[in-house]
Design brief:
Elements lengths: L1 E9 L3 H10 L6 E4 L20 H11 L4 E4 L3 E7 L2 E5 L4 E11 L3 E3 L12 E2 L1 H9 L8 E6 L3 H11 L3 E7 L3 H10 L4 H10 L4 E2 L2 E7 L6 E6 L2 E6 L2 E5 L2 E3 L2 H6 L3 E2 L2 E2 L12 E3 L9 H15 L3 H6 L1 H17 L15 E3 L4 E2 H4 L5 H8 L11 H9 L15 H9 L4
Parallel strand pairs: 1-2, 1-6, 2-3, 6-19, 8-15, 9-10, 9-15, 10-11
Antiparallel strand pairs: 4-5, 5-6, 7-16, 12-13, 13-14, 17-18, 20-21
Helix pairs in contact: 1-2, 1-8, 3-4, 5-10, 8-10
Bound molecules: flavin-adenine dinucleotide (FAD).
Flavin-adenine dinucleotide (FAD) binds next to α1, β4, β7, α3 and α4.
């Protein structure tokens, strides 16, 4: 079975939704696909315990009302089927989508750094816990420690608290000076200043980070370095996030160049590959406001509306300024590279410990010697950690990009050569 889109948008978070809405008035046949059941991405993730903001609901309704935009939910990209062709799979079928122009809006995922005990049940990512709670995980009455870096810790605490969790500590690794400097800049973005008042929590401590998750069969407590002292706190849940890493794998596999750890784009959000654009956090962490304006620029540029796209450049520069200020203030301290002990697992899918990786020249050598990154997550977790710990560039992923049914893979045989 084959299918066609003038404009294919991968990822229906703020960037992808904004791209589709901006491109739709052109009349182009647009397909917006996402591996989640509902549009919204990470920040506007839906679920039984989620409260969606009005902006997210409005954007969803607008998209639903557009006859030239099709939304494919719960759909994954399995492989490249040919030039400008992707093999897709949902719960019922596999099929090939041919497109003229593509916008990658694949977002970012959490950076999880290994520390002793991080694989104990009860320990999750900070954004991961938030996603679980929105999806229905009951946390009422549970004691929760949140650690790591950046505003996502506070957002996660807010979601947990409003669902009945008891916040015991929020340990921010950035120094008091760095956080105060960031807060002093916030009046430049009044909306962010206002948001920060709602997020404040008196359990917040700067200059603090996790040392060890304690417990035998499941989490019972956490040992923290807290402003120069070592403290132990009893808790049922520990949520740890050290910032975000861009999801570049699909872009890399298609041939888009990287700039640092993100997909490289120009002022039009065009990638290094002709007719392929990228927007939002796959091009670097910046928050939902930056993702929205980048998505709109990419959508307009992709359908030839360059004047309208250019009018949004000042708005993008304003939110890029916020992103730069935030990334500077919450840069991960080098001390956090020392959290793992020799026997701490780095690749939890294949049980590969830190000592089996240290000393290798690069990711490929480590993978060949240890099976690191060859398990179910295909290096999505340990690849990011190894990049941070050892400076190894993650390899370009090979298809299938996610587990697929045999019938889906057989569609590749039906694809006529171009
Ligand atoms: C776990 C987590 C929780 C977060 N929570 C908050 C929060 O509470 N508040 C806040 O301000 N910021 C939060 N952020 C930051 C947030 O990611 C951004 O500010 C914003 O959502 C970025 O928008 P985006 O459109 O670039 O990407 P995203 O919102 O990440 O959207 C990308 C979408 O693309 C989909 N996707 C990716 N690859 C593929 C593929 N190959 N095939 C199909 N679909 C694909 C993803 O499932 C996702 O739905 C969170 C980030 C993470 C990782």
């Amino acid at each position: 079975m084959s299918d066609y889109a003038d404009l294919l948008i991968i990822g229906a978070g703020p960037a992808g939704m904004a791209a589709a809405l901006a491109a739709a008035p052109s009349g182009a046949r647009i397909v917006l696909l996402d591996d989640n059941p509902l549009p919204g991405g990470q920040i506007w993730r839906d679920g039984p315990q989620a409260k969606l903001p009005a902006q997210a609901r409005q954007m969803r309704e607008q998209l639903l009302g557009l006859s030239n935009v099709r939304h494919h939910a719960d759909t994954r990209v399995i492989a490249q089927a040919g030039p400008k062709q992707l093999l897709l799979e949902d719960a019922e079928r596999g099929w090939v989508m041919t497109y003229e122009t593509l916008i990658l809006c694949t977002g970012a995922r959490e950076l999880l750094l290994p520390f002793p005990g991080w694989t104990l049940p009860g320990v999750t990512g900070a954004g991961g816990l938030q996603a679980l709670i929105k999806g229905g995980l009951p946390v009422s009455g549970e004691r929760l420690v949140i650690a790591g870096s950046g505003p996502l810790l506070l957002a996660s605490a807010t979601t947990a608290r409003s669902n009945g969790a008891r916040i015991v500590r929020i340990a921010e690794q950035a120094s008091r000076g760095a956080v105060a400097g960031f807060a002093a800049q916030l009046p430049r973005w009044p909306h962010k200043l206002l948001q920060s008042f709602g997020l404040f929590d008196h359990h917040y401590r700067t200059g603090s980070h996790v040392l060890e998750a304690l417990g035998s069969d499941r989490l019972e407590g956490v040992r923290l370095h807290q402003q120069g002292k070592v403290v132990e706190l009893a808790c049922e849940r520990l949520a740890v996030g050290f910032g975000l890493i861009p999801n570049t794998q699909l872009g890399q596999a298609l041939g888009c160049a990287l700039s640092g750890t993100a997909l490289a784009v120009d002022a039009w959000q065009a990638s290094s590959l002709a007719d392929h654009y990228a927007a939002g956090e796959c091009t670097g962490f910046g928050g939902s406001e930056l993702a929205l304006v980048e998505g709109a620029i990419a959508g307009l540029a992709a359908v030839g509306e360059r004047d309208a796209a250019q009018r949004l450049w000042p708005q993008r520069a304003r939110w890029q300024g916020f992103a730069d200020t935030l990334n500077h203030a919450f840069a991960i301290a080098p001390a956090l590279k020392q959290l793992a002990k020799p026997d701490t697992l780095v690749c939890r899918c294949e049980d590969v410990a830190f000592q089996a990786l240290a000393g290798h020249a690069d990711w490929r050598a480590a993978k060949l010697a240890s099976r690191c990154g060859m398990g179910a997550c295909q290096g999505r977790v340990c690849g990011g950690a190894a990049q941070h710990l050892f400076g190894w560039t993650p390899p370009v992923p090979r298809p299938p990009f996610s587990p697929a049914r045999i019938e889906t893979l057989l569609c590749l045989d039906d694809t006529p050569p171009l």
